[in-house]
C-alpha cells in the first residue's frame, strides 16, 4: 500500500508526472484542496480567471481509456471488454503489481499511469456498494459474486465486526428508491467482475505468472474509481465505451445546473475551461471551486453511483415503479397483458411522483398516469380481447381504443369513472409512501442517537444523514401529491 501522502504532496507529484507527459502546467490556474463542503478534494481557482480561459489540458496519452490501454494488452481485449471492465481491470492489476513492487524480492514494473493512479481514492465509504460488500462474510462474498476460492483478497481479508454492523445498519435504512438503485449498481458491478474474472482466467492459461494479479478487492476498488470518476470521451467505437479517466479533471466536483463541461479536442485530449462570458455559470474568482454537472440526477442516483447527495436537489422525485409492478402483478393475467401493452408501446419505464415547482403543482408523471389509466380500463366482458383464439380480429385495438385516444392526445381522459379510479390509486400510493417514510425517518434518527455513543466513522454518519434526507424529501413529495389530488 502507498504511504499516506498529503493532498499537497499528491498534487505536486501529479504535476511532475503530467509535466513528463507533455501536459501544460494546470497549477498556473488551479489548486487541489480539501473542500469544506463535504465533497472530499476539489479544485479551486488561483486568482480571478477571465472567461473562456483553458485551465486544464490533458493530452491523449495521459488519459486512461480503451484507446490508450490498447498497446499494453492482447489485441482481443479490445473486443472482449467494455470500457468499464477494462479500465477497472487495469487499475486492479496496477494495485496488485504495486503491492508486489513494494516487496524487495519481487519488484514488478511500474505502470506509466501509476503517479496518476496513486491520486485516486482508496476507499468509497459512502457508496452503498461498499456497504454491501463490506457487510458480507468471506463465504457470503464468494457466493454472492462467484469469487474463486484461491482469490487473494479472500485469503487476506480482515473484517472489522463493528464496521460490518454499521454497514448492515445503513443498508437496513435505505429507502426503497435507494435500494432499487443500489441493487442495479451492484448487478452491473457483479456482471463486470464475473466477465473479467472469467476472461482473466483464460488469459492466465498462457501467462500463469499473472494469475495472482487479479483479486476481487482490487477489482472492486478499480470499478468504483471508474464508475465515480470517468467522464464522457468519444473513443470512436460503441457508445458504451465512450468514457475516460482524466487526471486533474477527475478532481472536479459536481454542481447542479452548470453548462461548462470538459471538452474533447484533437490535440489536447480533454480540456476544461472557465465559463464563457455569456454562460449562466458563475465566473471564477480567486478561491472559487471549479465544478461541472455530472447530469440531472436525483439523490438516490447520486448516492448509489457517486456516494453523495444534494441537500436541495431540483431533480428530486419519488420513483414508484416498484409499486406499479405490484399493482399490475396483483391484477393477474389481465394485469400482465396490460403491462405488455405498455412495454410494447414504450410506456413502461420509470414512473414517478413529481414535487411542486414554480410552474406546476405536485403530481403523478405522464407515464404513471398512462399506466394507471390502462390498469383501470374496463375491458368488455365475455370474450377476452387479448386472446387471439377467442376474440375477433381487431377486438384488442377496439378494447384499448379509449386508452390509445389518450396516448395520442385526442382525449384527455378515458372516462370520468376511470379517472376517479386513477386518482384514487394515486392517493393510495401516496398514503403507503407517507406511511413508509413515517417509519423510515425515525429509524434513521434512532440510529443517529445510537451512533452518538459509538465511534462511528464520520463518512458513515454522513451516509446516514443522506439516507434520512432521501426519506424526508420523498415524504414531502408524497404528501404534496396527495394534497394536490384532494384539492382537485
Ligand atoms: C470525480 S470525483 C471528484 C473529486 C473528488 N471529490 C475527490 O476527492 O477526488 C467524484 C466524487 O467526488 C465527490 N463529489 C463530487 N461532487 C460532490 C458534491 N457536490 N458533494 C459531495 N461530494 C461530491 C463524490 O465522492 C464523488 O464520487
From TrEMBL:
UniProt entry keywords in alphabetical sequence: Methyltransferase, S-adenosyl-L-methionine, Transferase
Methyltransferase listed as a keyword: yes
KW Methyltransferase (keyword) present: yes
Protein name (Swiss-Prot/TrEMBL): SET domain-containing protein
UniProt xrefs under InterPro entries: SET_dom, SET_dom_sf, SETD3_SETD6_MTase, SETD4_SET
One Gene Ontology term from the biological process aspect of the record: methylation
Alphabetical list of PANTHER family matching this protein: ACTIN-HISTIDINE N-METHYLTRANSFERASE, UNCHARACTERIZED PUTATIVE METHYLTRANSFERASE
SUPFAM superfamilies reported in the protein's UniProt record: SET domain
Molecular-function GO terms, alphabetical: protein-lysine N-methyltransferase activity
Ranges where the SET domain occurs: 28-295
Amino acid at each position: 500500500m502507498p504511504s499516506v501522502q498529503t493532498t499537497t504532496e499528491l498534487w505536486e507529484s501529479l504535476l511532475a508526472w503530467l509535466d513528463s507527459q507533455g501536459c501544460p502546467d494546470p497549477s498556473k490556474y488551479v489548486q487541489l484542496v480539501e473542500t469544506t463542503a463535504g465533497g472530499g478534494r476539489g479544485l479551486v481557482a488561483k486568482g480571478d480567471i477571465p472567461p473562456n480561459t483553458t485551465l486544464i489540458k490533458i493530452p491523449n496519452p495521459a488519459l486512461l481509456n480503451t484507446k490508450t490501454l490498447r498497446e499494453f494488452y492482447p489485441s482481443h481485449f479490445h473486443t472482449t471488454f467494455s470500457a468499464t471492465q477494462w479500465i477497472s481491470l487495469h487499475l486492479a492489476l496496477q494495485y496488485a503489481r504495486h503491492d508486489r513492487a513494494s516487496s524487495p524480492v519481487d519488484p514488478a514494473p511500474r505502470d506509466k499511469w501509476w503517479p496518476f493512479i496513486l491520486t485516486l481514492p482508496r476507499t468509497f465509504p459512502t457508496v452503498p456498494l461498499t456497504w454491501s460488500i463490506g457487510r458480507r462474510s468471506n463465504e457470503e462474498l464468494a457466493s454472492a459474486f462467484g469469487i474463486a476460492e484461491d482469490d487473494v483478497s479472500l485469503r487476506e481479508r480482515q473484517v472489522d465486526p463493528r464496521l460490518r454492523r454499521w454497514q448492515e445498519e445503513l443498508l437496513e435504512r435505505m429507502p426503497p428508491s435507494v435500494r432499487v438503485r443500489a441493487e442495479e449498481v451492484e448487478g452491473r458491478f457483479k456482471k463486470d467482475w464475473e466477465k473479467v474474472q472469467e476472461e482473466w482466467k483464460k488469459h492466465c492459461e498462457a501467462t500463469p505468472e499473472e494469475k495472482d494479479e487479479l483479486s476481487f478487492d482490487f477489482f472492486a476498488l478499480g470499478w468504483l474509481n471508474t464508475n465515480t470518476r470517468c467522464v464522457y470521451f468519444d473513443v470512436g467505437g460503441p457508445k458504451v465505451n465512450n468514457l475516460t479517466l482524466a487526471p486533474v479533471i477527475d478532481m472536479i466536483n459536481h454542481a447542479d445546473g452548470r453548462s461548462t463541461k470538459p471538452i474533447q479536442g484533437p490535440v489536447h485530449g480533454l480540456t476544461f475551461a472557465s465559463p464563457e462570458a455569456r454562460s449562466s455559470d458563475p465566473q471564477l474568482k480567486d478561491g472559487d471551486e471549479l465544478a461541472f454537472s455530472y447530469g440531472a440526477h436525483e439523490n438516490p442516483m447520486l448516492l448509489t453511483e457517486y456516494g453523495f447527495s444534494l441537500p436541495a436537489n431540483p431533480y428530486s422525485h419519488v420513483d414508484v415503479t416498484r409499486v406499479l409492478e405490484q399493482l399490475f402483478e396483483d391484477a393477474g393475467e389481465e394485469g400482465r397483458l396490460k403491462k405488455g401493452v405498455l412495454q410494447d408501446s414504450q410506456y413502461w419505464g420509470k414512473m414517478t411522483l413529481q414535487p411542486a415547482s414554480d410552474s406546476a403543482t405536485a403530481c403523478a408523471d405522464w407515464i404513471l398516469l398512462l399506466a394507471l389509466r390502462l390498469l383501470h380500463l374496463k375491458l368488455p366482458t365475455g370474450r377476452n380481447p387479448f386472446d387471439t383464439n377467442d376474440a375477433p380480429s381487431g377486438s384488442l385495438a377496439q378494447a384499448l381504443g379509449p386508452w390509445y385516444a389518450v396516448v395520442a392526445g385526442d382525449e384527455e381522459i378515458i372516462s370520468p369513472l376511470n379517472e376517479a379510479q386513477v386518482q384514487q390509486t394515486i392517493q393510495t400510493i401516496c398514503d403507503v409512501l407517507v406511511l413508509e417514510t413515517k417509519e423510515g425517518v425515525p429509524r434513521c434518527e434512532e440510529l443517529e442517537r445510537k451512533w452518538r455513543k459509538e465511534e462511528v466513522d464520520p463518512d458513515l454518519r454522513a451516509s446516514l444523514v443522506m439516507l434520512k434526507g432521501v426519506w424526508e424529501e420523498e415524504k414531502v413529495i408524497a404528501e404534496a401529491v396527495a394534497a394536490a389530488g384532494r384539492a382537485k
